Amino acid sequence: MPVLLSLLTLAATLFLNGNISLESYFPPLGKVLNPHGGFWQNAERGLSDLQLESSLVQGDITIVYDERYVPHVYAQSMEDALFAQGYLEAQNRLFQMDMMSRSVSGNLSEVIAGNAVVFQKDVESVRKGHRSTAAFLMQEFKKDKTKQYLKYYTEGVNHYIAGLAPKDYPIEYKLMDFTPSPWTEEKSIYVLITMADMLAGRADDFENNNLREVLGPELHAFLYGENFQVKAPVIPEGTVYGAAAEKDSYDSTMHSYGKIYKSEFSPNRIFGAGSNNWAVAGEKSKSGMPILANDPHLGLSLPSIWYEIELHTPEMHAHGVSVPGLAGCMIGFNENIAWGMTNVGHDIKDFYKIKYTDASKSNYVYGETERAIEIKDETIKRRGAADHVEKVAYTAWGPIVHGQETGDYAMHWVRSYRATAHEPSVYVDCMRSKSYDEFVAYSSGYVSPAQNFICVDRSNIGIRVNGAFPAKKKGDGKFVKDGSNPEAGYDKFIPIDQLPHSKNPERGFVSSANQRSTAADYPYYYNGIFATYRGERINSLLADGESFTPEDFKKFQLDDYSIKAHDFLPLFLAAVEENDNSAYKNLLQAWDFRYTKDSEAATLFYRWYTEYKRMIFDEFIPHRDEVYLKYPFDWKIYELTRDYPEHKIYDKLETDQVETRDDIIRESFVKACETMDNMTDKRWSQYRPLHIDHVAKISGLGRGNIAVGGAGEALNATRTRFGPSWRMVVGMGDKIEAYGVYPGGQSGNPASKYYTDMLQHWIDGKYYKIEMQPKAEELTASRTLTIQKKS
Amino acid sequence: MKRSIIQIVVLALVIFLAQFVLPWYALVILTFMYGLLLADNWRRAFFVSFLAVFLVWALYPLAISMQDGFRLAGVIGDVFGGLPGGLIVGVNGLVFGLLGGLAGLSGSLFKSLRSVDMGS
């Protein structure tokens, strides 16, 4: 009996200590619930001031947290300011940084045991060659001996980690039972790769190959071609570029057609993110000086993707938001300029079909010659299991990422082989720019993820499509390419002086919202994934108005007007018979095309359009499970609807009669009305609520079912798990007038009152006024830290 | 009764202090030792161990929770399926109190086993 009881006690203890592994992960409750070392120690019991010291800093640093827990750093040098930034981001966002880095380095399984999805993600990371990319970037970045910004940032992070006792580890480390390891510059580079993978890792080559097979080359070219009118490009038509580029003609031997079947993971990522930025010149503002607005729409998470910070050195005083893990601020303002970013959708990722010389797959055809496949062994460490060695096959084009019976495909990604030594300094140098021209000079040599760099000073406005873009032949990169043809690649890049750039344009404003960069007059060909409606909306609002104020720009950021609905709905309603579902028809006739929170018409239009699209492309249904496919862009479906009412794509495969546009409109309307009938709450925000998950999807640490207005194609671009992740408006003037808000809070500790304190403000469409504070003692401090130089 | 109370308080204090330097499972070892060396019967061994651990594992969290307005307890309640924060504090003490009680009981039963052996 006593032996039995003791064994039971022992078993219970081992279980609660996490020594007995279960089918699914269960936290080690003994460690987690221990009042002395477990999560209880993460309670925020008053934020006491701290005095620290380090031999790595050049002078004393003072950090004052303000009432929103935004740190204001007062340092004697840029190096010290970045040391402080590293320290602060670790103090508030360590787990998030760690996960972001691991998510592309293939090191998630090292800390997350027995999760097949996570392991697959690691395999995907190493197969995409991210480790080779990181090694390459490290080597290139080290070539700039003068600005080792990542080094100081890293030292700051590690100063924080070194001072951590196990009881102080962030809650997530305790729940997942692992120890924070020291930060490295390489980990920051992985954060950069995460951003590039998310924003510049998109491609639709496989989809286009399949669509060409499913629809036929002619119909594919019609629905998915690049030949459309660009209504509102980033850079206005008529902008003059440097020397004329040589125009290459289309080379029909470059592509390799044929279906690409689905395999274990999709190397093509279609992503729901987008962003807006715009600025008006002094002549269009009430104050007579420029105003800038920027709201990046990324995947929403808790903690938020952004960390707000103010850095002060003798030569610089800047306030903005950074991505934890990277030095500097991507978006912000200082005493002389304001700047921002939106993503550029140019396709910089291509796939090449590899033609092997024989079944052993050790050599492949490359022009007249053959080349050997290089195998790199990549070890994926697995917690609680043996290491896994993934053999990654490399070709001249890049790593082979996708294999199927009919062939293997290599991925060629500009980010993996192109870099400048200056690149990691760009977001730091933005902060210290004193004029528009300095900003442009500092941001030259930026590679990826390509962004629309917008900036204003007190007398200039401008925007530049900034990044490394291949100078492609016409049509290049639309489909999978022929890997046996050395001519299928590109070796030239668009020179910096021919990047699309607009400074002080006549119309008095600059803007971008992920649309095409240029009008048809740009000398270079490019393809990619581009939005349309938001850019059009911004431009029409800015063209129509005068004497704008920051208040106007806040309203624009919250604008939920849909040009898509405005375009489609008259065509839709005209086709519907008088007596069909008249209540729903009346609802839409009275609609102002705004995706407001309480609008039922918005829900109905959304359902109607979704059904309409699905019914038109019934051709996809038999293929959907076996190959990658995608719908044409909305603007193309609009052209189809407006100009081709009898087009054969409307005809349904399953019926004998011939359907036309109006049949599909009516049928999809009936279907949408049925769906509406079955809804208990038809309001838009109830039908499509917003969810903000925790970065590691730990349930209970995110926030779900948030009722907001907005839609993907509206300026207030909310989608189920995406949305404006930072809203900023900055009015230049003798004194800067700045506002900002993001859906989260500064602290990454879920038990902190600063974890979600800004969320409600964001939901309500409110902003915080940001006061630049040159003197530490004039701030309303919630906490003060000092880092003293240790002699 | 009085003796039990003194033993609970002393054992709780020893566990409370020990856990600042030792891992959480020190509570299992300490209550087992108490059962084995000090408790004069199995009933007392169980209840004293249970209550001593309960005191540390519920009162200390309670003290912490009163300082942060049960914010953290609420968060953990959410992680474990939406339990109210106050309940988390109680469950915390109860689960580990039972483990302590079990360990104390085991220790005490070993002792009786040993004395039976010696007697024969």
Alpha-carbon distance between the two ends of chain B: 32 Å
How many domains of chain B?
1
Q: How many separate domains make up the residues of chain A?
A: 3
* Gyration radius over CA of chain A: 27 Å
CA-based shape of chain A? globular
Q: SS-based structural class of chain B?
A: mainly alpha
Major beta sheet summary of chain B = none
How would you characterize the overall build of this protein?
With 791 residues, chain A is an alpha+beta fold. Chain A folds into 3 domains: 1-33, no CATH class; 42-275 and 305-530, no CATH class; 563-687, Penicillin amidase (Acylase) alpha subunit, N-terminal domain. In chain A, a hairpin with a 2-residue loop joins strand 7 (307-313) and strand 8. The longest helix of chain A has 28 residues, at 78-105. Chain A is globular, with a radius of gyration of 27 Å. The N and C termini of chain A lie far apart (64 Å). The model of chain A has no long low-confidence stretch (mean pLDDT 92). With 120 residues, chain B is mainly α. In chain B, helix 1 packs antiparallel against helix 2 (26-38) and helix 2 packs antiparallel against helix 3. Chain B has one domain. The two termini of chain B are 32 Å apart. Chain B is elongated. Chain A binds chain B through residues 1-2, 5-6, 8-9, 12-13, 16-17, 29-31, 33-40, 42-46, 171, 175, 698-701, 750-753, and chain B through 19-20, 23-25, 28, 32, 56-57, 60-61, 64-65, 67-68, 71-72, 75-82, 92, 95-96, 99, 102-103, 105-106, 109-110, 112-113.
